[in-house]
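Reviewers asked in the last cycle whether our approach scales beyond single polypeptides. To address this, we selected a multi-component target totalling 545 residues and predicted its structure end to end. The input consisted of the following lines:
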Amino acid sequence: MVKARAIKEMLLFNMLRLAVIIIMLSFFIVLYFLAIHGLKVLSIPFLIEMPRSGMTEGGIMPAILGTFYLTLGSIIIAFPMALFTAIYMTEYAETRSKIMQTVRIAVNTLVGVPSVVYGLFGFAIFVKVFGFGVSILAGSFTMAVMLLPILIRATQEALLAVPNSFREASFAVGASKWQTIKRVVLSSSAPGILTGIILSISRAAGETATIMFTAVTFFTLSLPDSIFSEVMALPYHIYGLMTEGAFPEKQVPIAYGTTLVLVLLVLSLSLTAIILRINLRRKRKW
Amino acid sequence: MSEKGLKELKSEVKNLNFYYGDVHALKNISLPIERRKVTALIGPSGCGKTTFLRCVNRMHDLYSHNRYEGEIILYPEGINIISSSIDPIEIRMQISMVFQKPNPFPKSIYENVAYGLRVRGIKKSQILAEKVEKSLRGAALWDEVKDRLNNSAFDLSGGQQQRLCIARALATNPRILLFDEPTSALDPTATSKIEELIIQLKDEVTIIIVTHNMQQAARVSDYTAFMYLGEIVEHDKTDKIFTAPSNKLTEEYITGRFG
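The resulting structure, written as structure tokens, was:
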């Protein structure tokens, strides 16, 4: 009897282990594959030069810059709104009211909307109606709308994870509601909120469909000089090279190299944020 | 009660009724709270003692569908602190509470004690440091933590955390200090340390303590009120309640026949 149970435990544990191994392997296989094909084009000039000769030579600097601006822009727009929405939903609103139920349904639905839909929405509203044109501004706003539900949800979870006993302790010493939120709730949930931002960075940097009609073009003559400029972007550049490139022998390796740069960019942004989060967590253990 | 004069009373509860939504949780509570004495509230689970305690510092205002009726008069001003025209935050600035389960903030020991002061706009580090030390001494915790004020409060043991919460509550010089079963989550050694502390503190501050531990009430308090099903059954000097209670129900509870 006991032996059978022990065997069952061991089998299940190893199944779980296998799942983890498969995931880790997939990650390294993808990285390896990209490296094999892309490392040969990777170099300092590749990162800092403009493309030349119909995208068969030179670098991808404008695409790196474009992705950077769009990611930064969309998070700067989306985060404050997401934060205030999440704070309102968890700290102020009556959870059971009709309005809150509607907001919750809206957020949960929006999380699942495909990015191309956001792209078209952004094209209609920001590019056309608001008149931003195809630009960093339009792209950032469109991406911000896409990131909003993700950020709201992640921030909300972080806020809800703060035990109520902290809030009561704060009130019991005479703090006001906003003081409690600022000094206790936000302070304690900062690491969790940072997680949401990390996820959004990864999402934003890799998005293609959202920026396709709103911010990017395949080739720019110069680097962007204002928020109304069109830009190149890493994911779109990969797409362009692979589908419309006329010189595949030169351009496919460049596409792999671009992919590698994108992966490394996202990894390093995430790593920085993760290190920051570890530091924050150290001072806030509970 | 009025013959005692304002000098003797810190507060007076008059016909307090409290409703959680439609539930009539406290029924016509009337009770004097003697100044700089410990008043204990005892009674079986669910009798309303914690509900009553949380009326005194308006904690019920934090949640919806709660309603107060009646008066809790604070002396010497003579104002009714549960009146809706009074800002609950003003009340909580003068009446602090220590909870059943220690709940320090996930901050350093120093910042925990300084919290109430910072919230009142006190920023000068010298003033803060002085008050933090004074409060930690007042809570009999200073010697144990003076070398590690910047460590996380969660490095402390349960008993130390509770004394930290007491220091936090003391830092703002409250006029009344409320204790909600402060030792029920602690071991006997920590419990007795806190009981000693309460006896010391009453020379400076008026204390109301809710406890389900009758021996504790007998040890630390000057006056005791026995509550049952949302009402005050009997209120008198602690000695009298525990040796010769006037009410039969009180006697049955004290001798352990129920509760």
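The interface with chain A takes residues 57, 59, 62, 64, 89, 92-94, 96-97, 99, 101, 103-108, 115-116, 118-120, 152, 154, 165, 168-169, 172 of chain B (CB under 8 Å). We regard this as preliminary and will revisit it once experimental data from Aim 1 are available.
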